[in-house]
């Protein structure tokens, strides 16, 4: 990874976030470097939805070249349900699959608009990707599939439900 200019960081460490943002800005400014590949969801789910994008990659500026990727599970499913299968079982499923097929769509480049903040820009990109791949848009991040739901998130959803 060091030979290919990966930017490694610990998501929970605030100092690392600022350092990564700085490194990405420097990388974008250097026109001799290749574009950066970022997966802003941080994880994937069952190939039906696009989860919340982490805003950090949309705060640095530059042009975003969205790519929509959707797996076709007819010959083999690339999705790993870690609550159901161990890593070894998943690897066995993948290597014994007839094929892992995915559709890839390259969308038009997108740039953050003047009045737009990073969250709105991320949501606009996410919506374009979801629309192209025929997936639904989810307002939460992938951490919910592995972590306990925050009480504040539950309360917010309860308030929205009460308003209905």
From TrEMBL:
<keyword id="KW-0594">Phospholipid biosynthesis</keyword>
<feature type="domain" description="Phospholipid/glycerol acyltransferase">
    <location>
        <begin position="1"/>
        <end position="70"/>
    </location>
</feature>
<keyword id="KW-0808">Transferase</keyword>
<keyword id="KW-0443">Lipid metabolism</keyword>
<dbReference type="InterPro" id="IPR045252">
    <property type="entry name" value="LPCAT1-like"/>
</dbReference>
<dbReference type="InterPro" id="IPR002123">
    <property type="entry name" value="Plipid/glycerol_acylTrfase"/>
</dbReference>
<dbReference type="GO" id="GO:0019432">
    <property type="term" value="P:triglyceride biosynthetic process"/>
</dbReference>
<dbReference type="GO" id="GO:0004366">
    <property type="term" value="F:glycerol-3-phosphate O-acyltransferase activity"/>
</dbReference>
<keyword id="KW-1208">Phospholipid metabolism</keyword>
<comment type="pathway">
    <text>Glycerolipid metabolism; triacylglycerol biosynthesis.</text>
</comment>
<keyword id="KW-1133">Transmembrane helix</keyword>
<protein>
    <submittedName>
        <fullName>GPAT3 acyltransferase</fullName>
    </submittedName>
</protein>
<keyword id="KW-0444">Lipid biosynthesis</keyword>
<keyword id="KW-0472">Membrane</keyword>
<keyword id="KW-0812">Transmembrane</keyword>
<keyword id="KW-0256">Endoplasmic reticulum</keyword>
<comment type="similarity">
    <text>Belongs to the 1-acyl-sn-glycerol-3-phosphate acyltransferase family.</text>
</comment>
<dbReference type="GO" id="GO:0008654">
    <property type="term" value="P:phospholipid biosynthetic process"/>
</dbReference>
<comment type="pathway">
    <text>Phospholipid metabolism; CDP-diacylglycerol biosynthesis; CDP-diacylglycerol from sn-glycerol 3-phosphate: step 1/3.</text>
</comment>
<keyword id="KW-0012">Acyltransferase</keyword>
<dbReference type="GO" id="GO:0005789">
    <property type="term" value="C:endoplasmic reticulum membrane"/>
</dbReference>
<dbReference type="Pfam" id="PF01553">
    <property type="entry name" value="Acyltransferase"/>
</dbReference>
């Amino acid at each position: 990874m060091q030979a290919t200019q990966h930017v490694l960081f610990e998501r929970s460490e605030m100092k690392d976030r600022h350092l990564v943002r700085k490194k990405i800005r420097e990388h974008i400014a250097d026109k001799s470097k290749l574009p950066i590949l970022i997966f802003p969801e941080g994880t994937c789910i069952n190939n039906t939805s696009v989860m919340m994008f982490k805003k950090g990659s949309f705060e640095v500026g530059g042009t975003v070249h969205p790519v929509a990727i959707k797996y076709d599970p007819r010959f083999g499913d690339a999705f790993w349900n870690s609550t159901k299968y161990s890593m070894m079982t998943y690897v066995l499923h993948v290597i014994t699959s007839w094929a892992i097929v995915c559709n890839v769509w390259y969308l038009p480049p997108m740039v953050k608009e003047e009045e737009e903040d990073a969250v709105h820009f991320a949501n606009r990109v996410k919506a374009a990707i979801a629309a192209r791949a025929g997936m639904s848009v989810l307002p939460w991040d992938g951490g919910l599939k592995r972590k306990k739901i925050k009480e504040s998130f539950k309360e917010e959803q309860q308030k929205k439900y009460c308003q209905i």
